[in-house]
Amino acid sequence: MDRIFAHEYTHLLHKEWARQNDLKLETYKDSILWECFYEGFGMYRSMSKKWFPVDGSLSKTSEETFKTLYPIFTDRLITIDSSSLLSKQDKIKLHKNLSRGSMKKKWGALPVGVWLAMEANGNHKNLNKWIEKGPEAIIPLAKKHLTGSEKIRFLEHFKDIE
């Protein structure tokens, strides 16, 4: 129950952050990055210990799950960034399971939550720099934490974003 309340309370804090920072979601990409951001923080605050890093590395559960989620995360963010004319059906398909459904299918929220746990390294204050960036934190977080061919593809596509 505590994890559920922590998750929802985190959403309330992000709504206030968005208001105070006059966040404007002008594009589909903006809304996707925002959802990755606030749902990722919600996941960080509510996920069970099996998802948290062990000695600075991904847990076995995260590592196995990300074999499936990293390609989805990479493909969808590259597609969203590359396409200015997405149909409503395209948007529904791309958004599917970003933050809803079973944990192992949450392609946007779960990786971000785990990456935040890695960044925090046991100290929530380590997340301040990511909080300050808002949804613009997602691209640099992904560049830092994706692995393998997904990291290479992501770095190449988003090379101009710090």
Question: What descriptive keywords fit this protein?
Answer:
about 160 residues, mainly alpha, 8 helices
- Secondary-structure-derived class: mainly alpha
Distance between the termini: 37 Å
Largest sheet: none
Low-confidence stretches: none
The best one-word shape is: globular
Q: How many domains comprise the coordinates? A: 1
Total helical segments = 8
Helix and strand sequence: HHHHHHHH
Helix content: 55-70%
Q: Report the count of strand segments.
A: 0
- Beta-strand content: under 5%
| Backbone CA Rg | 15 Å
Look at the structure and give the mean pLDDT: 90
Question: What is shown here, in short?
Answer:
With 162 residues, the chain is mainly α. Helices cover 65% and strands 0% of the residues.
Description:
The chain is mostly helical. The protein has one domain (2-157). 65% of the residues lie in helices and 0% in strands. The chain contains 8 helices and no strands. It has helices spanning 2-20, 28-46, 60-82, 88-95, 109-120, 128-133, 138-145, 148-157. It is globular, with a radius of gyration of 15 Å.
Topology:
Blueprint lengths: L1 H19 L7 H19 L13 H23 L5 H8 L13 H12 L7 H6 L4 H8 L2 H10 L5
Helix pairs in contact: 1-2, 2-5, 3-8
